[in-house]
Design goal:
The complex is a heterodimer. Chain A contains 21 helices and no strands. By secondary structure, chain A is mainly alpha-helical. Chain A starts with a helix and ends in an 8-residue tail after the last helix. Chain B is an alpha+beta fold. Chain B folds into two domains: about 150 residues, Immunoglobulin-like (Sandwich); about 35 residues. In chain B, the strands form three sheets. In chain B, strands 4-7-2-1-10-12 form a six-stranded mixed sheet, with no helix packed on it. A four-stranded antiparallel sheet of chain B has the order 5-6-3-9, with no helix packed on it. Classes of the chains: A mainly alpha, B alpha+beta. The interface between A and B is large, with 77 and 64 residues.
């Protein structure tokens, strides 16, 4: 199995390096690096969005949750897709029409405030560092479970391989690589499920066994309030996820973005069903693993035939790499474009900005390793918590801000800070009584964020009309937005 | 200064993730740990004699062992129930053996025969996970007719040439699937081939698309 894996992984890495080098020679300025020259079509774009969304959280964490809790975790996907639909109809077209390079660009222009943009940039850097911790932790788990590697070694290999292709080609290489990664993920999962069904002796016996082990596995492990809380966390964070929205900017036009979102939902539907089946069937085959996070790697290494197992491991690697890559692009842009380029050195040249971007990516890739080695929680818990915080401080300024003209800069700043703090405080205090009151931190965070946004905006000076035109007056009256800056 | 703030924020956030109470903790490790399991399966015709020995640390007051029930199979147990502290329940999908623990550790020896379709031979799995790298799990199978081994057995087995098949998994599986089933569709083999077909087909399709996009207008 190890030999087969190294052959498959070798071919995969060779393809990635090839695309990265090809992209490197086609990357001249920031628009090329951060938006692939605005050349991505709906199929590649949809695969990119799917690959970005599908992460270690899915391959390790979600499989683990299905292993532990059974079917009921699947309903969370409806929240994810609701988030995508909100994005498709009320966020993506306006953002793409605006045509900036980063989400803080949007915040700064929409609300006419560089400070609001800088705050958004800082929150993005911090929150996505958390997300990276989950990805690296999953990489460490896989490396340990399969190859007996020390977690630090596995994480550094992951950082090195991902940072290389992110640094070399930016969004252009990432987009084509993520298209391939999505195809690998979907193929591996679709092939793995029948094999597991075969080993389990069929679906009906597997269900009977699971019913006997724990009837909640095939019914309701989580109550509706918990499902709602998880769905709201994921849905609201997807609707306003900077690492997804940044990818909208790389697509040809607003219509392409909408079509790409529907393609992404299609890929995720297939992946979601397969991940559910894999979690449940792995529970049938190995009913008592020491950690649910081990389910996917144990299944790939100890159940599947070598070539299929190797493909699935490469798919898991792809899921982690694609998400790490997207996050690195966002946090790198947060430092280089939003903080350095907009605040510290507005006169910096294109070559220098791309260089700062590349250096930031390498540095920001190493920081989460420190935290990942400390294992603060299981992978899916970290993913859920960061999703709650993203939703709490970003959903209102992005989604409501794009659809309500009266929103102002002080309102947006109050919404971001208030949502963040409300989510944090509730998590440490009121959250502990969830079983009694059923109110999750994300619901409190969004409610406070929304209330502050509406209230503060009503009592502060409106944003100038010229800032709003591009978002509210339709494409005919709006300027095309910067395609080359 | 910014770095210090970022580190403090990340730490606080991760502490939040660790203490969040909405999600039932996914990785709450049960105290009970499977330390040793040695399982020997002897095949004789259409019967498999299974002899299994388990040693579990910190089992609590009682520990459950589950074994999957498989269609077209009859299981006969050689157990002393009742006063021995063992109870056997037959549920629709599984057999459940409950062992009363008397002390900090539990040692249990089980013997049972399985008759009928032996493509999958069920094992009793304690509700106590093994500790990878520390627990010693050993599954031995002998009496397998020559040429009847499955191409992709579950779990993985080695065959040192002594007539005994040996598996040392990190976690105890629900069953052993070593005997090739008769007349089944070889799904694992087909899956292997489908990987090759998809890889070659995908590459060919990509080449075709590239050629098509470069055709003269």
């Amino acid at each position: 199995m190890s030999g087969t894996f190294f052959v498959v992984a070798g071919i995969y890495l060779a393809v990635i390096v090839g695309i990265s080098v090809w992209s490197y020679f086609r990357t001249g300025d920031e628009v090329d690096f951060l938006a692939a020259g605005r050349s991505i079509g709906p199929w590649v774009g949809g695969a990119v969005l799917a690959a970005t969304q599908i992460s270690a959280g899915t391959f390790v964490g979600t499989v683990g949750r299905h292993y532990l809790a059974g079917v009921s975790w699947w309903y969370v996907w409806f929240g994810v897709w609701a988030g995508w639909l909100v994005s498709a109809f009320w966020v993506a077209p306006k953002l793409r029409r605006f045509g900036a390079l980063t989400v803080p660009d949007y915040i700064a222009v929409r609300f006419g405030s560089k400070a609001a943009g800088a705050l958004a940039g800082a929150l993005i850097v911090v929150s996505y560092t958390i997300f990276l911790v989950a990805q690296f932790q999953a990489g460490g788990e896989i490396g340990l479970a399969i190859f007996g590697l020390r977690p630090l070694t596995a994480m550094l290999i992951l950082v090195a391989s991902t940072a290389v292709y992110t640094v070399l080609g930016g969004v252009r290489s990432s987009s084509y690589i993520e298209f391939i990664q999505t195809l690998i993920m979907v193929s591996a999962l679709v092939i793995a499920v029948p094999v597991l069904v075969y080993y389990a002796g069929g679906i009906a016996p597997a269900k009977r066994f699971l019913d006997g082990l724990d009837p909640r596995l095939t019914a309701t492990f989580y109550g509706w309030k918990e499902i709602l809380a998880f769905s709201v966390s994921f849905g609201f964070s997807i609707a306003a996820a900077p690492y997804e929205m940044t990818r909208y900017y790389s697509m040809r036009d607003a219509r392409t973005v909408q079509r790409a979102i529907f393609v992404a939902i299609g890929f995720q539907l297939v992946i979601g069903v397969c991940v559910l089946a894999i979690g449940l069937l792995t529970r049938v085959l190995f009913p008592n693993l020491s950690s649910p996070d081990l389910a996917s790697s144990v299944m790939a290494f100890q159940v599947l035939p070598p070539l299929v197992g190797a493909l699935l491991l490469v798919a898991m690697l792809s899921a982690i790499m694609s998400t790490v890559n997207s996050i690195l692009l966002v946090v790198g842009a947060g430092v280089a474009h939003d903080l350095y380029g907009k605040l510290l050195r507005p006169d910096a040249g294109q070559k220098r900005l791309v260089l700062i971007n590349r250096v930031s990516i390498v540095v920001l890739a190493l920081i989460p390793v420190f935290f990942a080695l400390r294992k603060y929680g299981d992978v899916q818990s970290i993913v859920v918590e960061q999703a709650k915080f993203i939703a709490s401080f970003f959903f209102v300024p992005v989604v409501i801000g794009l659809n309500w003209r009266r929103g102002t800069a002080p309102g947006a700043v109050a919404a971001m800070i208030g949502g963040f703090l409300a989510c944090l405080v509730w998590t440490f205090t009121g959250q502990r009584g969830f079983a009694r009151h059923g109110i999750d931190a994300v619901e409190v965070g969004i409610a406070v964020s929304l209330a502050l946004f509406l209230l503060v905006s009503c009592y502060t000076r409106p944003v100038p009309q010229e800032n709003l035109a591009i978002f509210f007056d339709g494409p005919a009256e709006a300027s095309p937005g910067p395609t080359r800056t | 200064m910014t770095g210090t703030f970022a580190c403090a924020a990340v730490t606080a956030w991760l502490a939040t993730a660790a203490t969040a109470t909405t999600a039932p903790a996914a990785s709450v490790a049960p105290q009970a740990t499977l330390r040793d399991a040695r399982i020997r399966i002897s095949l004789h015709g259409d019967t498999a004699h299974v002899s299994a020995r388990y040693r579990v640390s910190d089992p609590g007051d009682a520990l459950r062992f589950n074994a999957i029930r498989i269609a077209r199979q009859v299981a006969a147990f050689d157990l002393v129930l009742g006063r021995s502290g063992l109870r056997l329940d037959t549920l629709p999908g599984l057999f459940r053996l409950t062992a009363i623990a008397r002390g900090p550790g539990l040692s249990l020896e089980l013997r049972y025969d399985v008759t009928g379709d032996l493509a999958r031979i069920p094992l009793f799995v304690p509700e106590a996970p093994a500790a990878p790298g520390e627990s010693r799990l050993l599954i031995l199978v002998d009496g397998l007719p020559p040429g009847r081994a499955a191409r992709f057995p579950f779990p993985h087995f080695t065959h040192p040439g002594t007539g005994t098949w040996v598996s040392t998994p990190d976690h105890l599986p629900s069953f052993v699937a070593l005997l090739a089933p008769k007349g089944d569709i070889p799904v694992p083999t087909l899956a292997q081939w489908s990987v090759v077909v998809i890889a070659l087909g995908g590459t060919a399709l990509w080449l075709l698309v590239q050629l098509w996009s470069r055709r003269p207008a």
